[in-house]
Amino acid sequence: MEVEVDSTPGLHSLSIVGLPDKSVQESKDRIESAIKNSGFIAPKKKNNRVIVNLAPADIKKEGPSYDLPIALGYLLATKQICLDNTKRLFLGELSLNGSLRKVSGILPVALMALDSGFEEFLIPIDNTVEASAVKGLRIIGISNLAELVKYLNKEITIEPTKHLDYDHCALNASESNELHEFDLYHIKGQENAKRALIIAASGGHNILMHGPPGSGKSLLAQGLSSILPNMSRDEALEVTKIYSICGLIKDLPIIKERPFRNPHHSTSAVAVVGGGTWPRPGEISLAHRGVLFLDELPEFSRDVIEALRQPMESGDVVVSRASSSVKFPARFMLVAAMNPCPCGNYGDDVKDCICSAAAIYKYQRKISGPMLDRIDIQISVPRETYSRLSGEPTGRKSSEIRTIVAKTREVQAQRFTGTKVHANSEMGPRDIKKYCELTPDAEELVKSAVVSHNLSGRGYHKILKIARTIADLSESKLIMPNHVAEAVAYRIKPETP
Questions:
Q1: Does residue 180 share a domain with residue 131?
Q2: pTM of this prediction?
């Protein structure tokens, strides 16, 4: 984007063209006051006709980030300042007194500036921490318009912001994980479900937990985030760019922990997938490289559930409008929980189900077959006994499990070096053929499972992906029969009476 300003003698007017939104149109008054209060001659005093063009003219512009470049462009056009703006990029919102306010979307703009050959990025001082994640670009934090002009005229010196040491920040994030609120060690019982969560976290697989109310499904899902490894630098930048666009970056310059999004079941399809008049990322994009947890899955509207099908396969979502379309990344782990029936007791050994067969069928049919086919791991979470609930915790702590998961992810990172694949769940048919090497007995077992359970092609590939992850956890290069057997067990769906 470029800002062009032309000033000619005539009856005073200040017009902005180039498809500006309301916030850009309103910048005229902010800029007038900021220029006047910074000690320069405002457009009204100059009595000139000023035209501001936001190029390219066929792309809609939104937000107050154009305030600073428009003000500088006006000062240049009216020859109130003289500066060299070669390889310099300006961005920021102006207040009425000329000071600069923090704006959203700094990180993706900084990355774009680096790729475009800019050498210096001049932004509000409150945005410098976020921009410091980009190396190779001089980040200059500015407090107000007058200070910026003095810096450009070399009347004062401003030291560039130090760049972020990502490895040090990642270490701090790892240490903070030790204090995670939901540690799997403190969840008593449910060892089978914990094992499934370890596999899901290791390979980035989707997982559906079904069982009676109070069996621990939500608690297990929240505990999942405590065993997920920190993101790589590239993954962290992807996630931080999304949060930067949404204005959700706060104290940390870069997001290192994997996101965990837990939208309410009343959330609309637009809020989950993304959209709006000016398309914005939805919950699935905010969960990119992390977890999207849908509790009480059948209570979500069918539009929301079915809208997840395409992003779960492709890893991105395209929001189309009449004038344009926007693609947002959406490579997330879907973690869902549901009761087996409306009363929640169908299949329970202790409590009787009061639902009719038709009610149970209708409830379970809210999740379509194609949607279930896209969920890699489907497990039952039964009600735990009193002896286990009152006994001592068993199993390993989340910190120990996270080390194992991180090691398994590292194996996958080395396997997929040079590709866009980060985890086993993202493998395509070509990758599956290349990396999912089975022993003869394991191949025979896969064949038997596909034939006896009448699995789809997607189901067949899901079994191989899960088996590959289980083999990675076992540090095995080949997929063995026991790996396949466990993977097949995770493809069981809730039964309908």
A1: no
A2: 0.89
